[in-house]
Write a structure and sequence with these properties.
Shape: globular
Strand content: 35-45%
Structural class: alpha/beta
CATH architecture: 3-Layer(bba) Sandwich
Largest sheet: 6 strands, mixed
CATH topology: D-tyrosyl-trna(Tyr) Deacylase, Chain: A
Mean pLDDT: 95
Oligomer: single chain
CATH superfamily: D-tyrosyl-tRNA(Tyr) deacylase
Low-confidence stretches: none
Helix content: 10-25%
CATH class: Alpha Beta
């Protein structure tokens, strides 16, 4: 499972010109599900995102977590995080999860986030969406559950 986490002051996702989800100060999480991902990756990834200390806390530029600032979250499915561009110029998405299982895990990720965060909005799985955001910092982090599971040397 992969995520691009952007600290934002506000964000929204639209489908066909209609806003379907929005958040204020917090995170936009672009979420990709890979082939072979399970519920364990949902928990591993959300636990890391929820505890990231990337908000200013008065003393440090990055001392506060999402809960410390009463942050909000907008989660958008994005299978293109699994693009493989090593061969040719047209990306391959063979490493992305199958649509039905990816949708199930995406929805599970949203539910898991809702357990910790008061305001969680999302896009629509598989839809053609337009995401608007004001990146705060800018601050953007890329996470991959395969790397999170590896011991640090």
């Amino acid at each position: 499972m992969r995520a691009v986490v952007q600290r934002v002051s506000e964000a929204s996702v639209s489908i066909g010109g209609q806003v379907v989800g929005a958040c204020g100060r917090g995170y936009v999480v672009l979420l990709g599900v890979g082939a072979g991902d399970t519920e364990a990756e949902v928990e591993r990834l959300w636990s890391k995102i929820a505890k990231l200390r990337i908000f200013p806390d008065g003393e440090h530029h990055t001392g506060a977590a999402l809960a410390d600032v009463d942050g909000e979250v907008l989660i958008v499915s994005q299978f293109t995080l699994y693009a493989d561009c090593r061969k040719g110029n047209r990306p391959s998405f063979i490493a992305a999860g199958a649509p039905d299982e990816s949708k199930r895990l995406y929805e599970l990720f949203v539910k898991r986030a809702q357990q910790d965060v008061g305001h969680v909005a999302c896009g629509e799985f598989g839809a053609d969406m337009q995401v608007s955001l004001v990146n705060d910092g800018p601050f953007t982090i890329c996470l991959d559950t395969e790397e999170l599971a590896r011991p640090r040397n």
